[in-house]
Amino acid sequence: MALRCLYQGSAGELAEIIAQGQLVEELRRRFIATHGAKPKESESASWGGSIHTVVDLLMGNGLEDVQVLIELTAPICDARMDVVLVGSERETGEICVVVVENKQWSQVRPVLGTQMVHVPNAPGRNPRLHPAVQADGYRQVLRDFVPMLRTAKVMSLVNLHNMPAAVLETIRGDNQELEGGAKRTRMYGQEPEERERFAVKLTKTLSGDKAYDYARDLLSARVSPTESLMTAVAKSVRGRSVFPLLDEQRKAVEFVKAQLAASRQGNKRVVLIVGGPGTGKSVIALELLAACSKDVLKVAHATGSRSFTRTLWEYAGIDKRARRIFRYFNSFATVTSKLDMLIADEAHRLRRHAPGTGLSQVGQLINAADVPVFLLDEHQVVRPGEDGTIQLIENTANEMKHEVLRIDLRNQFRCGGDPEYIRWIEQLLGLVPGEPPRRWRPLENYELYVAPTPDAMEKFLNKRATETNSSARISAGFCWPWSYPRRDGTLADNVRINGWNRPWNVKGDEWVGDKPPHSLWATHPGGRDQIGCIYTAQGFEYAWAGVIFGPDLVWRDGGWQADISKNHDPAVEDASDFDFLVRNTYRVLATRGMRGTVLYSVDRTTNFMLGNLGARLLDYDGVLMNPS
């Protein structure tokens, strides 16, 4: 996994492109080649209107050798930084990195009590994340996830080249109560004295010495994956900010926090946060939990997943408090003391009707808190009775006379931070109307393989996990019976494929020797040699994912055929929508990996189809075929 950008070159080289009037066209060409689509007009306008204002300062102050990286993709998601300058630190000669966030705004006003701003007459939705918070988020993520920068000089600046000083003053850190690095992030406006201050800051910080070498080293540097969600739980419970949230994730957190203030005035709203796998929904949930705990507010985190909730209990490590904070959806049938905030994570697992009450389960959760927050992905509904849809939540809130505020997440934090893989899986499984399976286009940040046997898959994953000192798990469709542990403390090899036999994860809540209960299969090292199912994989992540397609979903005559008779999950045995549920199931299983995925189907025709889509092929020993 490495960093990538749209353009890399010295300030002098970039100045020549700008002088020739070719900047926007050159960046558009590179964008189409990289992303397979045209950039938005707003992006092109930003390139043409802002980049030259930074290059002019570099060229006018003897910094023509400083390397300029345009549209550098953040190391843990697909958010892109406007401009990153790379050179030597003046005092030490070591690598120095300056993140510059460009804004063409001329007018802005703070949204008091938040780290948000309102930008009048600008395209897009208001309010927006404060630019200093946005820039500092990029600084943090570079420091936290690029080991070579952890002891280096990394700073963030905001270039507001159209903004009058009087307007800029209203959103400076002291006036808007910004915190931490955002408060220390310098912002520069349009007046000559502002541009001079910007230039002085750059010249005091940067030198062009060794800039090319440092930029080359940065773009080829190792990137560590994001901290595991589960290992961060204990920090969140204690009220600490855990993750360097970027752009829309940070905006979502600030937006929800603002609703707490509004609820004090009697303006209760329901917040709906929607996003696909790895867009940071659970990270946002834990960050909100940390913020509420820090402010000594009454807060609870609820899910419909037994595995996910019990794992949260385990990793929080303080059982009584954890069990009070981390709860199930069905824990709110009666409300004795209203919460300040209820965070309903994985809300796609909500059920339409709550047993024994007159309210729906959604209605119960809305009643339980001043600010109810629902986080969901509609494509993760995998069993009958789960009905947590956007429409259900919106309709229930409207019936209860509450406004619904919706946030849609785009940036991917899982799957190498690249949404292309998730889109490819959705197209493969026929979950995108009108878009059939397409050939795989190799990505820099994510690896995809097809194995000829489950044994080859296992050998490859074990080797990858050892080489990278990371986690790997194999999961499968629920196409084999699932037995309880034997009396002698061993597990039956239920998953049997042509002489390759492995046990499912432990059935039950007790340890079996060194093998963890099913709720810890995805996160405890002892789960590595068992096969996980949808109920133990959903909601979790690991570095390397292996996915076994069972005979319940096969490829025939140019399309998928679902066969409920081949599925052993009691929860779906009478499901009228099994075809939809089983394709969602394999989507979930195939989007757990952070670095790469290996696919295999027990059906030869299906595995042949997967192998013909362009993924890299493994041989029978789990070795890459034709590595060149």
Question: How do the strands and helices of this protein lay out in sequence?
Answer:
Layout: E1 7-10, H1 11-19, H2 23-35, H3 41-59, E2 67-73, E3 80-89, E4 95-102, E5 109-111, E6 116-118, E7 128-129, H4 131-145, E8 153-159, H5 165-169, H6 173-176, H7 180-184, E9 186-188, H8 192-205, E10 206-207, H9 211-219, H10 233-237, H11 247-264, E11 269-274, H12 281-294, E12 299-303, H13 306-316, H14 319-325, E13 326-328, E14 339-344, H15 361-367, E15 369-376, H16 390-399, E16 403-408, H17 419-428, E17 447-450, H18 454-468, E18 472-476, E19 495-497, E20 500-502, E21 531-532, H19 534-537, E22 542-549, E23 553-556, E24 559-562, H20 578-589, E25 593-601, H21 604-611, E26 616-617
Helix pairs in contact: 1-3, 2-3, 11-12
Helix content: 25-40%
Assembly state (oligomeric)? single chain
**Roughly what fraction of the amino acids lie in strands?**
15-25%
Note poorly predicted spans.
none
- Write down the Rg: 26 Å
Q: What is the average of the pLDDT values?
A: 85
Report how far the terminal alpha carbons are from each other.
18 Å
Q: Number of helical runs?
A: 21
What can be said about the biggest beta sheet?
7 strands, mixed
At the third CATH level, what is the topology name of the largest domain? Trna Endonuclease, Chain: A, domain 1
Shape: globular
- CATH architecture group name of the largest domain: 3-Layer(aba) Sandwich
CATH first level of the largest domain: Alpha Beta
DSSP E strands, number: 26
Structural class: alpha/beta
User: What is the count of structural domains?
Assistant: 3
